[in-house]
Structure formats: C-alpha cells, structure tokens
C-alpha cells in the first residue's frame, strides 16, 4: 500500500494561497494541494505550474470542457477511458479531436474560477501532497502568478456583481421593457439569456451550461444593468 505523504498542512487564513503556492513552487515541482472546509477542491501542480484547479461546488471538468464546445460528450468519454488506462487526459482529448484552443480556454476558466473561490476569505484548510499526479497531465499548465492575478480581479468584480445577484439561488426573469432602445447581446450572453425563464435559478443555469459561477453571474449582471432581466422578487 502506498502511504500518502503530506509535506505541509494548515489553514489559508494563516498561510494565504499566494504564499502557499510560492512555498510549494520552491519545495517541489509537482504535487496536489487539497483544500477542505470553507472552500473545498484541489490545485494540481506540474513543474511548478498550475495544471488545473477545481472547486468541489463548481462545474466539473467534464461539464466545463463539453460546455465550451471543445469536444463532444462521446469524445470526452473516450478520452476519459484512455486516461483510465494511464494516458494523460489532455493528450487523449487532443488526439480524440478536441479543439486545442477551446480546451486550453476551458481549463483556464476552470482554474481561475476555482482560485477565485479559494481566495474568498473563509476557514479553508489545505494539505500539500508532493509527487502526486492527476489524470489531466501538464500540457496546458499555467503560470501561478497569471491565474492568481486574474482570480484576484474577479474577487473585486464580484463585490459589484453581488449587489445585483447576492446568491446563485436567485431566479431571474426577462423584463417587460428595456431601459434603453437597444442592447448588444453576444453569443455567450445569448446562451445564458435563453435559459432565463422565471423558474430556473442562477445555479440551474450554471449547471446546465457547464460554465463557472463568475462567468454566468457576470453576464447576468450586465443584463440586469442593461435592464433586460431582473430577479423574480423585483417589484414591477
């Protein structure tokens, strides 16, 4: 039996995530940071870069990759089977026909979205397990400083978004009248707007689309500001 060796453990309130990643980068080129408590999930490191970060309460990697259009559900299942046999999942996805740019974007979105959750203050414990690998591999690994900076920007933006969408349990509906004569809707906006039906919660939309909470709430916030949608609890 292989013994799980924890090299460092503690709480993010005592050792912030940025400092933890710096320590890990200096101590070991690869491993997994396991998080629990306030925000649960994992951060996978390969050659001191972040291969993937995932939050347990966020969309799964399969939902994110399939939802991005990088590969079909059938293609994902075939790649996952290859990964179960020992191949790096990223390599199997590419060989199975996944669009490399869309895949990279989906992995980055998954990583930044999870780091955003890990940066929010809370009682989150961590344990770093060195020399541990996960199925994804390191083909699309990201510089920690880059994705952390992007996640920090989301923390600041979330303070504004939360004023209009305080919880993903909120249910949105279309407004009967716009605040302006016209508004611009792009393809991503439309995917979300098409699911605003007055019955589905924001969490339902996140799950159905396989997008991060920040991405969905960011679009909904813009639509609220433009006067296109509102909470079902809003007063007419």
Concise summary:
The protein has 236 residues and is of the alpha+beta class.
Describe, in plain words, how this protein is organized in 3D.
The chain is of the alpha+beta class. It folds into two domains: 8-143, no CATH class; 165-229. 45% of the residues lie in helices and 16% in strands. It is built from nine helices and seven strands, in the order βαβββααααβαβαααβ. It has a five-stranded antiparallel sheet. The protein has a two-stranded antiparallel ribbon with strand order 6-7. α3 (73-84) packs across α4 (89-95), α5 (100-119) packs across α6 and α7 (187-193) crosses α9. The mean pLDDT is 87.
Number of structurally distinct domains? 2
User: Strand order of the main beta sheet, please?
Assistant: 1-5-2-3-4
Instruction: Give a short account of the largest sheet.
Output: 5 strands, antiparallel
- Give start-end ranges of low-pLDDT stretches: none
Number of strands: 7
What gap, in angstroms, lies between the N and C termini?
Answer: 64 Å
Class per helix and strand makeup:
alpha+beta
Number of helices: 9
Shape: globular
Give the overall average pLDDT: 87
Query: Element order, helices and strands?
Result: EHEEEHHHHEHEHHHE
């Amino acid at each position: 039996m292989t013994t799980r060796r924890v090299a460092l453990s503690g709480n993010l309130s005592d050792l912030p995530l940025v400092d933890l990643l710096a320590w890990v980068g200096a101590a070991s080129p690869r491993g997994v940071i396991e998080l629990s408590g306030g925000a649960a999930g994992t951060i996978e490191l390969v050659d001191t870069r972040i291969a993937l970060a995932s939050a347990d309460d966020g969309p799964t990697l399969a939902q994110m990759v399939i939802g991005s259009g990088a590969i079909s559900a059938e293609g994902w299942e075939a790649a996952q089977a290859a990964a179960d046999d020992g191949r790096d999942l990223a390599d199997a996805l590419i060989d199975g026909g996944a669009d490399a740019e869309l895949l990279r974007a989906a992995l980055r979105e998954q990583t930044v979205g999870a780091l955003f959750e890990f940066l929010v203050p809370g009682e989150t414990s961590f344990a770093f397990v060195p020399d541990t690998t996960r199925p994804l591999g390191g083909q699309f690994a990201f510089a920690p400083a880059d994705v952390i900076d992007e996640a920090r920007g989301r923390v600041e933006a979330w303070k504004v978004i939360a004023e209009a969408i305080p919880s993903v349990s909120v249910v949105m509906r279309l407004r009967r009248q716009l605040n302006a004569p016209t508004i611009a809707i792009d393809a991503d906006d439309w995917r979300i707007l098409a699911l605003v039906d007055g019955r589905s919660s924001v969490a339902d939309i996140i799950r159905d689309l396989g997008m991060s909470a920040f991405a969905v709430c960011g679009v909904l916030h813009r639509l609220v500001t433009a006067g296109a949608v509102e909470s079902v609890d809003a007063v007419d």
